[in-house]
Amino acid sequence: MINGRKIIDGHLHTKYFPENWFIECADKRGYDGYAVLSLSCMKSWGGAVNNEQCLAAKRADPKRCYFFAGLVHPCEDYQAHAEKWLKDGADGIKFLETKPTCQKQTGVDLSDERFEKMFAYLEETGTPILWHCGDPATFWDKEKVPDWAVENGWFYGDGSYKSLSELYGMVEKVLAKHPKLKACLAHLYFCGDDRKHAEWLLDTYEDVRLDITPGVEMYDAFTEDHDGWREFFIKYQNRIQLGSDTDMGDDLSAETAFNLAYKALGKGEFDWNKMHVTGLNLPEDVIDKIVCENFKAFAGDVPKQLG
């Protein structure tokens, strides 16, 4: 808890064997629960072994740690792969294949027919899905892309990457076929500069939700259009979740993405990494939903038992 408020961080990762690091993170930040998401589709994160690393994090803290398993490519039977990890104790499935770098590396289009059986199974079973699609629109614009994004290899305007609209198209084609998918789209679906798109998405698919894991650019948008985004958060208060993108080894005590995501929901103004943020000043009961209750409604009151 933080000042008596229950907290669930629904978006963490690990590239290494976690040992007890996530326990330390949860203890220091006052988490009542947290979700470790596998990036097994990325070779740079160890590929298939990342599922095992995330499962190890859950085994170390089974009462607080939720685990979302990822896909591995190529795979003969994606449905069987998902079923296997869910049986072993995964609470849901994580997709990163529609992040531009990952899509380029894997060549995977999740709207392809070969994933149809898997999505039908996930829809039928109500399996929680945490799905990353896109990146900030500025990352495709040579004049606007931040230097730190270029340094991380996240400039996509050279013609070799799918456009943001093409990546959205992959997700939305799947949703059109499977409108009851229980999907949380990470980083506000990178709609900080396009609130109407986020509204359309939530109005069209009643089981879709968003997380506010930074995606730092969305917090600039919240400040620039404070009243509009405050109204959005209140309207969709049952369908927004907290996340931090914390990775093993991140600083737990200094300025963190978790502090940004949490503090931006409240009142007042603060500076974060050269950015001035005006809090959304949401009602206390709305904040309670976003930082805890909505994740429970999405993934369960407590983590699944291990297989």
Short description:
The protein is of the alpha/beta class and 307 residues long. It has helices spanning 21-29, 49-60, 78-88, 100-106, 116-125, 147-151, 164-177, 195-204, 217-224, 226-235, 257-263, 284-299, and strands at 8-13, 33-37, 65-70, 92-98, 129-133, 183-185, 209-211, 240-241, 246-247, 269-272, 275-278.
Set out the fold topology.
Elements: E1 8-13, H1 21-29, E2 33-37, H2 49-60, E3 65-70, H3 78-88, E4 92-98, H4 100-106, H5 116-125, E5 129-133, H6 147-151, H7 164-177, E6 183-185, H8 195-204, E7 209-211, H9 217-224, H10 226-235, E8 240-241, E9 246-247, H11 257-263, E10 269-272, E11 275-278, H12 284-299
Parallel strand pairs: 1-2, 1-9, 2-3, 3-4, 4-5, 5-6, 6-7, 7-8
Antiparallel strand pairs: 10-11
Helix pairs in contact: 3-5, 9-10
Cross-sheet strand order for the largest sheet: 8-7-6-5-4-3-2-1-9
Main structural class: alpha/beta
Helix count equals 12
What is the arithmetic mean of pLDDT? Answer: 95
CATH top level?
Alpha Beta
CATH topology: TIM Barrel
The total number of structural domains is 1
Radius of gyration: 18 Å
- Alpha carbon gap, first and last residue: 29 Å
Helical percent range?
25-40%
Uncertain spans:
none
Share in β-strands: 15-25%
Secondary structure: number of strands: 11
Largest sheet entry:
9 strands, parallel
CATH homologous superfamily (4th level) name: Metal-dependent hydrolases
Order of helices and strands: EHEHEHEHHEHHEHEHHEEHEEH
Give the second-level CATH assignment, the architecture.
Alpha-Beta Barrel
What is the 3D form? globular
